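Minutes, project check-in
Item: structure for the 328-residue chain
Input as provided by the requester:
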Amino acid sequence: MKVGDKVSFVNEKLNGVIKAVKPGGIIAVEIEDDFIIDALEKDVVVTEVFIKNHSAETTEIKKVESTEAEFALHTNEIDFVAIPAEKHKVLTGYVSYYLINGTDNDLQYLFYSRSDSGVQLKSSGALSAHNKVNVLTINRPDITDISSFLIQLLISGGNIVHHPVQKEMAVMLPDLSLKNKNYPDFTAVTSILNFNQPDDSALIKLKELFEPEIKTGATNKKTKDNRASKNSQAILLNYDEIDLHIEKLTDNSHLMSNFEMLELQKSVVRQEMDKAIRKHYKKIVFIHGKGEGVLKNEVLKELSVYNDIEIREADYSRFGGGATEVIF
């Protein structure tokens, strides 16, 4: 398709002329009364191909700017981002969603949208290291039908072995207030996995924190207590407890609505699960309290999207039925 082609809409009784071809498979179509609307190329068919008349006055076509070339592709992270399909239309028009692979690994991915009518596969394929793929471009009014996105990943390459990753993500939109060092302004970002490691100074502090103090006598003989201390260290590095009570997560809970508090608690569950998978934890406990069971139910929903885990009530003698344990 090119500027000047006459087209008809597949699902509507509309005809028009292409006025601009934009990034992400979007075209601007002039319909009746000189009104111009955006559409996806797949939603129209060409009815008459435009043949340029060289004797006619040449019309200058303005280049439509896209933001995708500004992506950082060596972040050592796997991200899901939302950008304006056109740089100058941040709050209107189409939104493009990208899967960004900033790691040295290759990915196989399945990308779904969830709505009241069920789960629908939107895109699938392979994504090589340090690359990106547009998994969906959609008009803003159509986004209201989507409740969330779901992505499944298989990661290969190097010596890294991971569980298959499955993550459900809230629908996000570009916004004028958003800034991120790895992406253009206005880009909304959800981190799926982060492979970055702490620097040497952070590792030294961590080692000092967990390294047991072994007292040596004249004979320098290892005691039973020494061995127990080392075993305790190994357990600590493969196990974590996360307290989800809101006062443990933020000092600004008094400024938040109940919805915002719950969203923060759910995001912590996702972040800690991703960290546990990256660090090959054996077990993680989420402390949610008893109450009316609202937070517990949301925790269980978040955990339900992960594969190859066992979910059970944590030790009752310690948590009194107010915690959930995940075994990897």
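Outcome recorded: The mean pLDDT is 79.
No further action items on this chain.
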